[in-house]
Amino acid sequence: MQTYDEIVACRDVQQETWGEAFVDLVPPSLLVVTQKIGGILAGAFTEANELVAFVYGVPGLRNGEDIHWSHMMAVRPAYRGSGIGRDLKLFQREFVLSQGIRRIHWTYDPLEALNANLNLNRLGAFPEEYVRDLYGDGSSSILHSTIGTDRYVVTWHLLEEDRLAHRAKFEDAGVLADLPVVNDAEAIRDYHAVRVEIPVHIQHVKKQSADLARAWRQSTRKALELYLGAGFGVVGYYQDPESKRCYYILARPR
Q1: I need a labelling partner for 17 at 20 to 30 A (CA). Which of 55, 56, 235, 251 fits?
Q2: What is the pLDDT of residue 140?
């Protein structure tokens, strides 16, 4: 982004996305400075020059390797599902590759099925770590209230060879519909791959029943921590075409 007015508009998009009480807004001054040190702030605009979405990320180090951390992507509600989010991520990919960096990391809520589809299926990223309440209890955000801020830490290998090398670390899941669902698992079983179910739309669940939303958080947290802790990897996400139920696929390491 070039002008200060464009950068200030990011504040409005953040508030429209996470609510006016959201305390973790990235201020315009920081958005300006980040672009001076190798970060990215890229926006999507209408023909009338209205900002409808943006992506923001910063360079850094992780495990001794140069990486890029994609801190925030926000899309105005009226434009969600239009493909703008994917386009912004692909633009970010080219920007990061031009710096000689091969990996981008970010976080997202494992209960958000639309984000799971974008991150795993459309971009080819892999969740590698599950963190409880990474950003606190989430009470300042309309999206995070009730269920806290458990997050996946995602790795996006920008080169195909790196993605294939990562995927080769885990067994082939096989027929997805035949895999056991382990939301209520108390211990690791001798499975080569499993499914963990998530709701189709957690924000709708929250509006219907806070208790049910919290139950989804507890069951998925337990299962994902259990199997990821045993070395399984998240290798896919899918929605059953008949039942419309949504699942993560986790596979045992080879």
Answers
A1: 235
A2: 63
pLDDT tens-digit series, residues 179-223: 999 999 888 989 999 999 999 999 999 999 999 999 999 999 999
Question: Tens of pLDDT along 118-156?
Answer: 999 999 999 999 999 998 876 667 667 789 999 999 999
Which amino acid is present at 144?
Answer: H
With tokens 């309309």, the residue in question is: 142
Cβ(49)–Cβ(9) below 8 Å: no
Q: For the chain, give the mean pLDDT.
A: 94
Region of 50 please: left (phi>0), alpha (psi -120 to 50) or beta.
beta
**Between vectors from CA 132 to CA 227 and to CA 19, what angle results, nearest 5°?**
130
Alpha-carbon span 184 to 182, nearest angstrom: 5
Beta bridge partners, 194, equal 250
59 - beta bridge partners? 68
Nearest CA to 220 among 138, 130, 156, 119?
130
How far apart (Å, rounded) are the C-alpha atoms in residues 135 and 20? 17
Assess contact for 184 and 197: CB atoms under 8 A: no
- At 12, phi and psi to the nearest 5? -65, -40
Identify whether the C-beta of residue 122 lies closer than 8 Å to the C-beta of residue 86.
yes
DSSP state of 158: S
DSSP characters for 79-131? GTTSSHHHHHHHHHHHHHHTTT--EEEEEE-TT-HHHHIIIIIIS--EEEEEE
Asked if residue 200 lies in contact with residue 215, where contact means CB atoms within 8 angstroms, the answer is: no
